[in-house]
Write the structure tokens for this entry.
Amino acid sequence: MKKSEEFLSRWLPYVTAAWVCLMLLSLKFRFLDCLAVTTWHGRLGVDFFAVPRSFINLVHHQSIYATRQCGWGPYAAWFPYHPALSVLLGSWLSLFKPWTAYSVFAGISIAVFFYCGLLARQFISGGVLGKLAYFLPLCSIPAYLTIWNGQVHILVALAFCLFLADLLEPPGGIRW
């Protein structure tokens, strides 16, 4: 192995962990927002709060799409998702206070990105490429924006990774 590969193999996990910490800190202090064009409105988690609101509307026998009628959370946004998400995610996230629910979902989003890296890692022999399997899904501006907006599309990314892992399953199954 070359010196540069050894260096990257040794330090890439630390760089990945540092970027994840920077993303989490930036959710509080907003210093990475200047890198992402779509954060101009300043409404952190704007896509997220519609999901618990839709479930609260469902409980009150109102349309899940009329999220502006519900007072839960700081922002009212439209609910463009499948109605099942209202029950699957909104049912338990609406039990928390709004910003706590957003924090829990941000943690879940990071865990999903990490799991996608774990799935990708199964198809790579190791070394620097194995470390890149975690670095690439976690360390990007789109990953930051997914967490910043609280996009439930993280579940689509997970489904896509699971689909590819099933299609590309190595001989002997996936190693855990």
Summary: Residues 14 and 135 are 10 Å apart (CA to CA). Residues 3-30+44-167 form one domain. The chain has a mean pLDDT of 90.
